[in-house]
């Protein structure tokens, strides 16, 4: 029994469940931006489409982070020996099987919604693997590569109504910038970093918030969007300011965690701009669960 529990916990640790919840909210933001929620989820077909896209992002994100640990196994034996693969809880072969299964699940689930959704899912899988193997080692390519995965994930949600992609596809640049900012910070998580990098990331966060606020203003939802942006700013700035004062590894790790968890509030702000009140609250409801899971499972 202990062996089974240990294995299941190891697999969950590889998949970063707290992070997966943030990926699901990317999809919810995307379907709101597409206008899919304008008339609510009135029929079973609409609900099934949303569920399939949620399953797709679970598979794609989960598979991506599993392969991240696979490619980092040798380095983790030195820097993070407590992780599932270097600690021996999960073998490298078992991790590869899990990662392949999750990526295939993600792509197939996306194709059940439509061809465009399926091809976007393939692009996400490729972008994730490129980052895991090569992108993370490049100073400039790495942050963009990681951000691209999130930008494509937002497009995956928008693709529920493919005709909306030409109008709103450019909004994928916002999560690209947001995640690029987090990725810049995360590189100094183990050994500590520089205040300059943290300030640059703060600037990226500021642009992201301004763009979302502008969309809220254009949609006549300024007050509603402002509330969710206030939650976002609290989540990301509280640990970031602390890290600026003392850019040690642990403080930077908390800043990274705040940025990742903050994705839920960011996506709630998107939904607030494009959908009626119950929907952004439903997205924000993921926040306490993600915070709870982040205490039990690492987000980085």
TrEMBL record:
The residues the entry assigns to the signal sequence are none
Where is this gene product found?
Membrane
The way this protein sits in the membrane is described as: Multi-pass membrane protein
Residues crossing the lipid bilayer are 20-41, 47-68, 116-132, 144-162, 168-186, 198-217, 223-243, 255-273
Q: What is its main location?
A: membrane
Question: What does the UniProt keyword field contain?
Answer: Cell membrane, Membrane, Transmembrane, Transmembrane helix
Q: What is the protein name for this chain?
A: UbiA-like protein EboC
Q: Which organism is it from?
A: Chitinophaga chungangae
